[in-house]
Amino acid sequence: MKTPRDSSMKPTTPQTSPHEQVTFQIQDIAFGGRGIGRVHQMACFTKGVIDGEIVNARVVRKKPRFLEAELLEIKKKSSHRVEAPCPYFLKCGGCSYQHIDYFHQLTIKEKQLKGALERIGGIKDPPVRTMLPSPKPFEYRNRITVHVRDGALGFFVEKSCEVIPIDSCRIASQEVNSALKKLKSQRPKDGDYLLGERERYGGFRQVNNSMAALMLEAVQGFAIKDHGILLIDAYCGAGFFTHALAPFFSKVVGIEWSKNSVALARREASLHEVFEEGSVEEILPKKLLEASSAETTLILDPPSEGISELVVMAIVNTPPQKIIYVSCNPATLARDIKRLSTHYKLQESTPLDMFPQTAEIESINILTLHGANH
Ligand SMILES: C[S@@+](CC[C@H](N)C(=O)[O-])C[C@H]1O[C@@H](n2cnc3c(N)ncnc32)[C@H](O)[C@@H]1O
Which atom of ligand 1 is nearest to the CA of 279? Predict the structure, then answer.
């Protein structure tokens, strides 16, 4: 007879072997677009599914704390499921949500932003507003980069340098697709090709024109609500926010390290707009020190890595009255809000769908100093 000391008597977690077929319910959609459910008490991730669906999938990877599975069959379909219009969907590594109706895509992204602010940012019941939809859920991208390898022209397969040949891209504008057709007919040599609308381009530019206009309107509304004297636009690119907000402030400073973008920004600058070329880490501390905190509004629009510890230090050493943090990554946004939480409170967060059909989430976040009247 076996005693409790026998290792074979220990309670065991049911084992899952790679290639095993499993049936489970999708409980949620994680940031990045994969559905998540539970298999043998472990989290299991699968692409191309919708919350509420029951799916049959094959385990393809087993990690110590989670499983990854490949979708085989949908046993119970969500009412939000639609036919993905693109033949390369889930193959090219671009879109994650073409199989989900647009309204539900917005609900999923809103929930993911809230979740990140709660879990990573430590904010109970975060003040997230309803997501602003893109006027165009398809044909919105004003540029794409395609790759040519061994004569094949298209996008990279997800997490690889293998090219999947394409004839068109459903989220790119008609003009971009015409440029793609023209490039294909020229049989280009191996390389990477940026195809964009014929507008002037010299640095970072928002990819979705109609959504960018709505974002500008929203940022403008927040910036001029109780307007200060000085506006600092950190990570300003070619001055997208800076130029539009300049009429509402006595002094405006843009900070950007791309030479091209700064040159473009200076070309359009009015007399009270100054553009400083260099890193935010180096320039922001000086600009904040020169100003009166109570009269300063700071825009932060960093790349997806968020702001560095040096930038956090500069802000808390000389805290501006209001921060408008424009983010394209909920995880780094939530981390940064937590780092700033000794001095700032998240007043409200407005998600906007700059990148429909993809997993990306853009948001405008208003941070106000503790104790400030609002
Ligand atoms: C998300 S874009 C925002 C651009 C601009 N606000 C717009 O809407 O067009 C981020 C910009 O920050 C710049 N950048 C990234 N890290 C930087 C840093 N540490 N210092 C200065 N500029 C930086 C990039 O060159 C890029 O132009």
Answer: 20
